[in-house]
User: Fold UDP-N-acetylmuramoylalanine--D-glutamate ligase from Pontibacter akesuensis.
Amino acid sequence: MKLAILGAGESGVGAALLAKAKGLEVFVSDKGEIKQQYKERLTAENIPFEEGTHSTERILAADQIIKSPGIPDKAPIIKEAVEKGIPVISEIEFAGRYTVAKFICITGTNGKTTTTLLTYHLLKSAGLNVGLAGNIGESLAEKVIENKYDYYVVELSSFQLDNMYQFKAHIAVLTNITPDHLDRYEYSMEKYADSKLRVAQNMTGADFFLFNADDENIARTFNASDFAGTAVPFSLKGAESAKVYFEGDEIKVNEKFYEASIDTFNSPLIGMHNQYNTMAAVAVAKLLGVEDAVIEQALATFENAEHRMQLVGEAKEVTYINDSKATNVEAVWYALEGIKQPIVWIAGGVDKGNDYSTLVDLAREKVKVLICLGEDNKKLQEAFGRVVPIVAETTSIEYAVRLSRSLSEPGDVVLLSPACASFDLFNNYEHRGQRFIEAVEKIVLKK
Assistant:
């Protein structure tokens, strides 16, 4: 079989390596520049590749195409492939064909990375033979080459789900659905929600779908009567259908033979959003037979990924938190809601059509200073100028940190939670978060 792979990032190169290992004829094409580390891996395996262009004739001679999640379906080369009847799939779909391991798949607009990492941590701490892959930044296809795991915890974006057809999760988790990336879905929330629900496709009665019963978009889209698997709703708001919920600091799981009561008091995760994430991860662990005491011990030792409510440090009784991954309003809402102290809030960047109205009450209650970090801060100033006592703006993250230090008092929290994309001043949200960390360490923590 001839295979063409479009995009030579982590997923594309992983798919190419798996294809080569399985004896397929493979060609990799990237219209942009391929990173040196990926060129070296392709060269080492004698896999032909090109960069800076798409050789249309060669690509369309393939029996199947694997495309990077970042390439939209409206891209000319994808349209041509579809017109010719060439199947276009994702790396995840391809990888799933070469393993009998069980998949725990996690998606959602917000919270999927934390939930993925926490689920993996709980299962690994319990001694399960488990791998981690997907949107988290590790290629599932490359891991499947060795195929040494019984379970894979896989973070999935909607873009990955769009090109998955036969793939099936044993346990699927949907944390929430809020507006994001709508430009890829014809600005239709219904189409975006349908994409997220694909995480539960192809399930049988032996499989489980864990979902947020408090989320209106999930409730509107998910039809339990058409679902063959076992639905496991989780809730913080007392949903009658909930099989997983909080009582005080304890998570209760009431799913048939998987009853549990898990104390979360020692968990380092804060905020309502992390209560949802923790319910989902704990429920997965229980469905796979992990004992309550093991879960409680693992919760206490969990360390979240960088740029997600990451504690950078504390100086003069002021806490500095890096939440650079919060690139939409919903993520910022959870960050502001979860912090109980007065907040010096650093926000801004490339606005994605944000509606800040849902943040106004929280800002009025909790935010004492707003520092707008971006080239165009007009919308932020209009939304919060009459709500927050002090509003400043800058295009320098170092100045933002200096200003936050001078305007904060003991007991305050300085929070980088931008609500916006980073591309006006930074390469990506990781770059923005790392620059914030460096500025805090240099300007604040070393003083």
